[in-house]
Structures are given as C-alpha cells and as structure tokens.
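Problem: given the chain below (157 residues), write out its structure.
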Amino acid sequence: MKLRVLAVGTRMPGWVVQGVETYRKRMPREMTLEFVEISPGQRSKSADPERAVRTEGDRLLATLKGSELMVALDVEGSSWSTPELAERMSQWQMGGSDVALLVGGPDGLDRRCLQRADQRWSLSPLTLPHPLVRVMLAEQLYRGWSLLSGHPYHRSG
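Solution.
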C-alpha cells in the first residue's frame, strides 16, 4: 500500500524536509510514504481567498488517482488516538487501495475535496502551521505502522 500526502505549498524549510524524510525513509516497502507538493493558489490583498482555495482544490483533485481512498485533513474531522489511527491503517491495507491524505493551504481545503473525502481526520483542534503538519503527519503515520507491526518505536504508557 502506498500512502500519498498531497499537500498545498512548495519550498518547505530545510527542517521540514529533513523531518518528513526521516519518517518517510523508515516506512517499510509494504507501506510506502510519498509527499506531493501542490502549488498554492495566488493570494494577494485584492484577491479573493475563495478563488485561491478553488484553484488548490482543482489541483488536489487532479492529482488524485482514481482508486485511492481519500482522507482529508480537516479541523472538523474525527480525532483519532494512535491506536485508532493504527486500526484505520490496518483497514486501509485490507481494503487494498492506496491512500491519499490531503492537506489544504492557509485557508483550508476546498469544499469539493471535503465532500469527496472518504474520511475526514483532525490532527488537532488547534490551528497548526502547515510546515509542522507535514512533519507531524509523517511521524504519526510511522507511529501507526510501528504499532501495527509491533515495532518498539511506539510504547504504550
């Protein structure tokens, strides 16, 4: 199974690239992790932010592969504990489809992405900086895999 993170935003700081790469490399061959950067919509003081969100939505939806299960990261989505994430990942594997996890831009995901999503997941009720979300997401996916596989990385308290 392939996990693809489709994230709005390009040219991340070095610490983000390094953090994501650390966890991406640790993922096993049977559950690879890929990050795809999506160019953000144009924003300016006079531009309508909704137009930028629609443009980002067009780009995200065009990047999806037809058979992928789509998970939208959304503050209003369901909050999952680590064991719940691991269970979801197990279900994704058993379902036989690859998974696309969508991360929106500064104004969130286009409503079409949210409507199309098979699942909506909230990492936190807090507003998180988009670069940090990438690192947190990579780490949580690795942690979920480690729990599923019995790897010592995840230790219950």
